[in-house]
Amino acid sequence: MKFGLFFFNRFLRKNLNTVLLVSLSLLTIIILISFNNLKNLESKRYQNLLDNVYLDKSIKNIINNLNPKYEDIEHKISEGDTFDKILKKYDVSTNEIKELKRILNKKNNINSLEINQLIKFTIEKNKITQIINFEFPINKKKKIFLTKNFESGDFAYEEVITNLEKKIVYKEGIIKRSLYRAATSKKIKPNIIIDFARIYGFQIDFQRDIRKNDTFHILYEEFVGDNEEVLETGNILFANINLGGQDNELYFFNKKNYEGHYDVQGKSAVKALMKTPINGARLSSSFGMRKHPILGYNKMHKGTDFAAPKGTPVMASGDGQIIKAAWCGGGGNCVKIKHNKTYSTVYAHLSKFAAGIKKGARVKQGRIIGYVGSTGLSTGPHLHYEVIENGKKINSQKLKLPSGKILKGDIRKNFEIDRIKTDIYISELLN
Ligand SMILES: [Zn+2]
Q1: 282-394: which CATH topology?
Q2: Would you say domain 165-262 falls under CATH 3.10.450.350?
């Protein structure tokens, strides 16, 4: 043994450098291996941590999905609507709107939205609101569907031809409480009820003229899908509302340039002037003697007042030319329109004038001319409306409204033929 140790010592002494080098190398290797092991362990831990974060995220996702962050929206186009206006109302981001318009604009003209067109879309409300799907009817038979691809963020574009079958439906009912209730109880679609009220809007005040047990009759178009579900409504072909035993029949005339509803005399349901040039207002003071709310003494009120919130749009009650759009003392900001040789109208106390409304401008019936306010001698926001007939202020609510279009000559004959066909059609349906 001693002998062996001696040789080992000799060997060590002789090769000290080599031994040191080998030991150092071994040490380095050991350290390296340990370090790597440690590193692996660390990275495993990190991986676990990551997994937990991911899990946490997943849970958050699931919880988020339980909250109603999706919203289905049905928007009916009304006057002055644009895509930007509609989508901004629901907080859709500007970029998203831009992208949507770019895709829609490729094959269609989306700048002319039609009133009453129904747009349906679903939005997802996160930090930013984005559109998940979008449905836009080009016409009764063609619809565009856009669907968001979550991976690419693009919209998939699809055009769908809906093969709808047209059905003609006849309904009648007795009004007990309101036209709306009576009509919905007969399963008449809201679109048709609104249209019905609109075509009678010039001659009937639905709040005041209707009495219990008045009746209505209506013939209209419906478009049904494969499963008999009503997907669209069409025109009202015939309508009648019997007020206190008096018929008020209107027939649809589907002729280019004359399209619309006419009575049995061939007079258009659209009159030259509106009774109420404002929507959703309450008549607050009628034409006649009254104690002036500000001046305090009895004075003839030569107009009709409609109470409405400040900013409610006021419409031109008929086609015509603006002869004044300026301050007019007690009337505050007022607009005066000359419709023809006989009639003019005045709109007073406006908070402001609509864009483009100035002396000399021509306006169409229904065009917004200004907004309800309380300027001039006024106690609160309302519209003071005057109708002037041959220079004399008259009661707009009692006015036998001047007729709009009247069918004459061959056009009238065509209308009469259509009218008889409709009457026959109804009598066959009823028998
Ligand atoms: Zn007034």
Answers
A1: Glucose Permease (Domain IIA) (2.70.70)
A2: yes
pLDDT in tens, 125-153: 777 788 888 888 877 677 888 888 877 77
Q: Each residue of 216-232: pLDDT tens digit?
A: 999 999 988 777 788 78
Question: Model pTM greater than 0.85?
Answer: no
Which among 221, 404, 385, 257 is positioned nearest to 314, based on CA atoms?
Answer: 385
Q: Which long-range contacts (CB under 8 A, 24 or more apart) does 154-163 make?
A: 155/99, 155/100, 155/103, 157/103, 157/106, 159/107, 162/225, 162/231, 163/226
Distance in Å, CA 153 to ligand 1 centroid: 56
Mean pLDDT on 15-29: 71
φ, ψ for residue 48, nearest 5 deg:
-60, -45
**How many whole angstroms from 361 Cα to the centroid of ligand 1?**
25
> Would strands 118-125 and 129-137 be described as parallel, antiparallel, or unpaired?
antiparallel
CA of 315 to the centre of ligand 1 (A): 17
